[in-house]
Amino acid sequence: MKPYYLLAVLPFIAILGGAAFVNKVEPYVLGLPFFLFWIILWSVLCSIIMFTIYQLDPLNKGSEED
Questions:
Q1: How many structural domains comprise the chain?
Q2: What is the pTM of this model?
Q3: Residue 14 · residue 42 · CB < 8 Å
Q4: Which band of pLDDT confidence, cut at 50, 70 and 90, is reported for residue 65?
Q5: What is the DSSP annotation of the chain?
Q6: Predicted pLDDT at 18
Q7: pLDDT tens, residue by residue, 11-57
Q8: Is residue 10 part of a domain?
Q9: Which of these, 17, 23, 21, 48, lies nearest to 35 by C-alpha position?
Q10: Which of 31, 57, 61, 64 gives a 20 to 30 Å CA spacing to 5?
């Protein structure tokens, strides 16, 4: 297993493991309760992390032939 595949574990740990620590209504961030902001933040970060893994994977760097 490639070491950069471990990046895919970060959103899992942050959303499920962090939920117990950030399960608060206050403070409000961008007008949202903190827990809702946390979930939205990690949804966006998950997409960025998956894109980074895709870019780092050498299997995706092959030439496209039609």
A1: 1
A2: 0.75
A3: yes
A4: low
A5: --GGGGGGHHHHIIIIITHHHH--SPSEETTEEHHHHHHHHHHHHHHHHHHHHHHH-GGGGSPP--
A6: 84
A7: 888 888 888 888 877 888 888 888 888 899 999 999 999 998 888 88
A8: yes
A9: 23
A10: 64
